[in-house]
Write a structure and sequence with these properties.
heterodimer; A: alpha/beta; five-stranded parallel sheet; four-stranded parallel sheet; 17 helices; B: alpha+beta; five-stranded antiparallel sheet; 3 helices; 31% helix; 30% strand; disordered N terminus; disordered C terminus
Chain lengths: 377, 105
């Protein structure tokens, strides 16, 4: 427990907070984006914002895997789950995400579809092995943290010659999303979002390493500090970013040295490269089509690709006009700017994906900041 | 603790049915189970995890587990260095006669 609780210690948090207050330049504003939903959660859970000087603003980024999945791809999964022979397996959060016409995988299950929740991708493989008479599809989502596990089960299925197993691949690439934020008109031209630096994700970086962020420092002049998920990690990362900005520097620094190296996890990268290749373009909810931002299964493993096996179709949908998830994912709006936040849209009955996942900004606001809101009776 | 549970029943018991994908924590390797499986322990809870994505580990090592897979080994030396740095900052900021103090007050 030392390596968990040690990073939540109050005295050090107070000291870091004081130190930050002395080091910030009162004449300037610091807008720092935490990319990852894990950080968003930690920031709210531990009240990190209250320990920061008033001129340090945290902007919540799009790093929530279920939030960025476009609705047509979820609709297609629900469609697939409706087929008699199919068992659809996915991570818990995905099951509650609202699709079009307020459907969800959970509701599909209530209507008789065989939808199962897995903690680990490997469970999907075990289900396939124990149900040879059924088609088992793993609905794979997530950033580079979950992609290697999906690669592993595809290779395992190949080795075991599992004919009834396939993967519906929706894996996305973190640096592509960061780049899209920096290239977006809101940041470049209109100035609606200001991002002076990034708090980099810890577990994605444990896999891909810190090197892929170097272009953001070099080409875009934005410092990146990779931080652990504990409150002291976040505070220290903010301090490191403030120091870089004060000195006019922009480089990639690593606060999470206990888990991240520059090269990352080569074995996991190798597995990903064996099984997956980049898609020319992939759609993100809120961010739109981003070039080279997702992966698909290579043709050598095509037999395990649910998209081709079931000839999956994606139909465009109109999103709920009141839901501000797309703007919240981009960091243009805060959850409290949304008219239905906390009233029509709640974690129990979510309208948008940001309210579903523990990593979504709306869910974090709802859980920890509701007291600060005026919710109509 | 929901993150650490190996099966759905345990997860639902500990985590009210909600599973968190990205909020993993460092855990200690308590046994090697053969093939690509290890047993992990944190705060008295034991669970099964795959080490297919990392190199060999030994009992007593710490790993970072994410959705049932260890994705990195926790570098204990680096963790201790970071903790020592926090202690140092805490001690410095507290001490009234320290050079830092003048910058705070």
């Amino acid at each position: 427990m030392r390596y968990i609780l040690g990073f939540r210690e109050g005295a050090a948090a107070a000291a870091l907070s004081k130190l930050l207050a002395t080091e910030v330049d009162p004449a300037r504003q610091y807008h720092l984006m935490e990319f990852c939903g894990g950080h968003t959660h930690a920031i709210f859970h531990y009240g990190v914002e209250d320990l920061l000087p008033a001129n340090v603003q945290l902007v919540h980024g799009p790093g929530c895997p279920v939030c960025v999945l476009p609705v047509p791809r979820l609709d297609a999964a629900i469609e697939l789950a409706g087929q008699r022979e199919v068992i659809l397996v996915s991570y818990g959060d995905m099951l509650r995400v609202p699709a079009s016409r307020r459907r969800s995988l959970l509701k599909a299950r209530a209507q008789g579809a065989d939808v199962r929740m897995a903690y680990s991708a490997f469970e999907a493989l075990e289900i396939a092995a124990s149900h040879p008479d059924r088609e088992v599809v793993f609905f794979a989502i997530g950033f580079e943290t979950t992609t290697p596990a999906t690669a592993h089960i595809i290779l395992e299925a190949h080795r075991r010659r599992l004919a009834n197993f396939s993967v519906y691949c929706n894996h996305v690439i973190t640096p592509a999303a960061i780049q899209s934020i920096l290239d977006s008109p809101e940041v470049r031209e209109r100035g609606e979002i200001r991002v002076d630096g990034f708090i980099g994700p810890s577990h994605v970086s444990a896999v891909i390493g810190s090197a892929p962020y170097e272009c953001f420092a070099k080409d875009y002049g934005r410092p990146v500090v990779i931080a652990g998920f504990e409150p002291l990690d976040v505070l220290q990362a903010v301090l490191m970013l403030v120091r870089q900005l004060n000195a006019g520097r922009a480089c990639v620094e690593n606060q999470f040295t206990r888990g991240v190296t520059r090269a990352g996890n080569l074995k996991a990268q190798d597995l990903m490269n064996t099984v997956f290749e980049r898609r020319p373009s992939f759609e993100w909810r809120g961010l739109g089509e981003l070039p080279h931002s997702g992966v698909k299964i290579k043709s050598a493993y095509r037999e395990f690709d649910a998209e081709s096996r079931f000839a999956m179709q994606f139909k465009p949908v109109t999103e709920n006009a009141a839901c501000q998830c797309p703007a919240i994912i981009r960091g243009v709006k805060k959850p409290t700017d949304c008219a239905i936040f906390g009233t029509v849209c709640t974690p129990r009955d979510p309208i948008g994906s940001c309210m579903v996942s523990a990593e979504g900004a709306c869910a974090a606001y709802y859980k920890y900041r509701r007291g600060a809101l005026q919710v109509p009776a | 603790m929901a993150t650490l549970c190996g099966d759905r029943a345990t997860c639902e018991r500990h985590g009210n049915g909600r599973l968190r994908m990205c909020l993993a924590v460092p855990v200690r390797v308590s046994a090697l189970l053969g093939d690509h499986w290890i047993e992990i322990e944190v705060g008295g809870i034991h669970s099964r995890t795959s080490i297919a994505l990392i190199d060999e580990v030994a009992v007593g090592d710490y790993v970072i587990v994410h959705a049932g897979y260890a994705i990195a080994r926790l570098d204990v030396r680096e963790a201790e260095k970071t903790l020592a740095l926090f202690d140092e900052i805490a001690a410095q900021v507290k001490r009234p006669d320290d050079a830092l103090h003048t910058r705070i007050s």
